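Notebook B, p. 112. Complex prediction, attempt 2.
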Amino acid sequence: MTDMPALPQGNGCRDVPVLKQRGQHEVFCGLTGIIWLHRKMQDAFFLVVGSRTCAHLLQSAAGVMIFAEPRFGTAILEEKDLAGLADANEELDREVERLLSRRSDIKQLFLVGSCPSEVIKLDLERAAERLSEKYFGKTQVLNYSGSGIETTFTQGEDACLASIVPAMPKTTERQLLVVGALPDVVEDQALKLLGDLGIETVRVLPSRTADEIAGVGPNTVFALTQPFLGDAAGALERRGARHIAAPFPFGEEGTTAWLAAIAREFGVDQDLFETVTAAPRARARKAIARSHEVLQNKRIFFFPDSQLEVPLARFLTRECGMEAVEVGTPFLHKGLVGPDLEMLATGPQISEGQDVDQQLDRAIAAQPDLTVCGLGLANPLEARGLTTKWAIELVFTPVHFYEQAGDLAELFTRPLRRRAMLAEHPSHINGPEISSGEREGAKRPSLGALA
Amino acid sequence: MKLAVWTYEGPPHVGAMRVATGMEGVHFVLHAPQGDTYADLLFTMIERRDHRPPVTFTTFQARDLGSDTATLFKDACNAAYERYKPEALIVGASCTAELIQDDPGGLAAALDLPIPVIPLELPSYQRKENFGADETFFQIVKHLAKPCEKTANITANILGPTGLGFRHRDDIVEVTSLLNDMGIDVNVVAPMGSSPTEIAQLPAAHFNVLLYPETAEAAARWLERTFDQPFTKTVPIGVGATRDFLAEVAEITGKPVQSDESRLRQPWYSASVDSTYLTGKRVFVFGDGTHVKTAARIAKEEMCFEVCGLGCYNREFARDVRALGKDYGVEALITDDYLDVEQAIERLQPELILGTQMERHIGKRLGIPCAVISAPVHVQDFPARYSPQAGWEGANVIFDTWVHPLVMGLEEHLLTMFREDFEFHDDAGASHHGGHAPREIGATPDVTEIPTPSGSDVVVWLQDAEKELKKIPFFVRGKAKRNTEAFATERGVTEISIDTLYEAKAHFAR
C-alpha cells in the first residue's frame, strides 16, 4: 500500500489558466444519456422528438440493440412536420397516445428535445404540460433537451434530472439527497455507508420508479455523485436545497472526502466515521495498489468527453501515481469540480471545449502512455502507436465509492497490460510485410510507444 | 412524425460519409451540430478503421444560430483544405443544418478553392442512408469523370463498394478474380479505394460491373448514357447468379466464359446426403433489396428451401422485391419498421430467418435461428477471415453461414425421438452452439439458486449479502459467488456478510 501524496500547495489547478478552444467537437450529444437513464428509471420512457440521425445515434452509440423492446424511441420528424408546427403538435399527441396505450407500464414520459426540434422551435415544454394534464394520474410527462446544439454527452443526464426537480413534492424534513444516476449496486453501497454514519433520511435523485420520487425543501442538503450535474444542482437550489461541496467519490481518497463533507454537515462523530470507513478504505487501497504498480509514473492525456476528467485526473495522479499531461473537459464547472481541481497538482494543461484536429496534434506530440478518448478516435490513435482507454466505459461501468475503486483503476491498467503483453511477441504484430488488404500509405499499427 | 425504435438505415449524410470514407484524397465538410460526430465511430469501431473518416463537422451550437453559422462553415472548409490538402472537397448538410438553410454548396464555391468542390443535396427528412451513398457517388462521378480513351485491353470498373458495406471488402477480391479469369482487367474499383484522379479515369473502362445497385446505380446509369459504358445487371451472389453474371460479361465483351471453379464446393455440399434435411425448410428473407433478391434465389434453387416470406427495407427497391414476391407466391413486405417485420415473422413461424442484425434479434426473441445476409452492419459483419458473399467463394461462405444456425442432420431426429429427454428436448437448440431457444435466454441456474445450507462444511450467505450478490450482473455473478465462497472457506469463515463479499472482491481484484 502506498501513502497518499501530500495535498498540493496553494489552490492546485484551481486557478491555472485554462486553454479554451473552439472547433470540431468529437463528443456525443446529450441524447446519449438516455442509454443509461432508461435502465435506471424503470418505469420511464424517453421519447426523442428528432430526426433519423437521432434514432441512428441512439442505436449506434452504445450498441444497445440487446433490449428487444427498449424504453426509448424517436418520433422522427418528417417533411410535413416541418411545414406546420400545429400539425407537429397533433402528430406528437397521436404518437404519445399510441405509445401509452400500448405500454401501460410507463409512469413517466420524457419528451426529449433534439437539434431539429430546437431549431424549428417545437415547444416541448407546452406539449409536456398539455399531455401531463391529459394523462393526469396515470403518466407524468416531463421534457428536457438533449440536443447537440445545447448539450454535450453527460449534460443530457443533467438536463433530465433538472427537469424532474420541479415535479418533486415539497418537504420540510431534514434530509440528504444523493444526486446522480448510479448503478443500483453502487447506490445501495452508498446508502448503506450513509446509513451506518447515522444519517437518518437519505433520498436519491433519480428514483428507480416514479412513485419513489423524493421531496425537496429548505431543510434538504444534497451531494452530487457526478461532476456534470450543474443544472440539476441549480434547480435544487431554487427549491431551497443546499449543496454540500466536496471532491467526487472516485477512489479511496475521493470517497472519504465526499463522505467526510456529508459527515461534517450532519455532525457525525469522528470515531464513528473512522469505524464505518476504516475497513472499506483499507480494501479500496489494497485493490488500487495492484493497479498502482502498472500505472505509476505513466503519463495520461484526457480528451474531453464526460466531464469526469478532472476528478479522474485527481484520482489517477494522487492514488495511482500517474502524471497528467492534458486534462480536457467539454465544460469546466469550477463551482462543482473546484475541490477536485484544488487537489490536483499543477502541471497538466487544463483545457475546455475542443478543436479536435489541434488537440490530436498535441496528443501525438506529447506521446502519452495512455490517452482517454471517445470511440471515434481510439482506433486511429492505437494505429499511431498510442494506447487508449475508451472514455464511454467510465460512464457505463460501476466506478464510484470504495468497493469500485479497484475496478476504476483497473479500467486504466487493462489497455497498458494488453499492449505490454502483445509487445512480448513483436513478430506477431510487426510481421515481415504489409498485407495486401491494407491501403497504400496506411501505417501498420505499431507498438513503438511501449514496446 | 413516425415512432422508430430501431432503424435499418441511417440518415443520408451517413451514406455520404460511407462514400467519402471508402475513397482516398477526398474530404467531406459536413455542416452539422456537435453530436453528429457519433458517425465516426461506425467506421472506427464497427469496421475497425485505423484512420478517422475524412470528415470535418462544423459543430455549430445554439448560440451560433442567431449569429453566423455561414462563416463557421466557410472557416471549416478553409481549415480542412489547409490541413488535409484533398484532391476534391465534398460539402453537405446534416438534418439540423438543412433546417438553417446556409447553402453549403454556394458558400464553398465562393471560397475559390483550387480543387473541385462537389455540393450535395441530402434531403434528410425524406430520404435515407442508401440514397445518400448513391447520390454522393453519382455527384462525385458526374463532377470528376472525364472523357478518355478506352484502355487497350478489355477492362471493367467495379462500382458500388463503400466504407461500412456488408462484405464489400472481400467481394471486390472475388469479383476481380472472376473478371481476371476471363482475361478482363479491373480499371477502377469505386468508390472504395479510389481517388479523384482514378474517378476521372472511369470512362476508360469498356463496361461497369454494378456490384451494389443500392450505392452505385445512379452513377452506372449516368456513365452508360454519357460514355456509352454498359453495366451488368446481375449481382454475382450465389452459384446461379454468378453463372448468369459471367454470361452477361461474355455478351458485353464478346469473350467466352472462362472460370476456375475448382474452389467451388457449394453445389456438391448441397447435393450430399447430409443436406437432405435442408429440403423444404421454410425461410423468411429480409434485408436490402439486392441481398434479398440474391438470397431468395439461392434459398430456393440452390438450398431447396421454401421461401415463405420476403421483403426489403429500402423503398427504392420496392418494385423489384414485390415482383420477386409474386414469383415466389408470397406477398412482399416493404417496410422500415422492425415491429412490422417481427409481426410477419411471428405469424409465418419460419424455420430459418435470412435477415439483418435486426432480424437476428427478432429471431433470438422468438427462438428462431437466423443467418445475416445484409446490412445494417454490425462488428460481426467484418470478420478477420476472408468472407465474401459474391462469386464462388461467396457461395461456399453462404452455404456455411446459413446451415450453421440450424440443428444438424441426425440431431434433428434425436430431438424428435427423445422429446422428453432432459438433454434432447424441443427447446434445447442445436448442440454445437450456444443455442437460441427462449428457455435458455436469461436462465442462469448456476447463480440464481442459492443453495440451502446444510451441514457444517457449508458457508452460509447472510440475507443482506445474498441480496447484494443478486445485484451483480448475471454474467459475472457466478464467478463472484464462487470466489467469495472460496475466500470464506480458505479463512474458515462460515457466514458470508456483505463485508466478506467485498473483502473477497478486493482480494481477487486485479
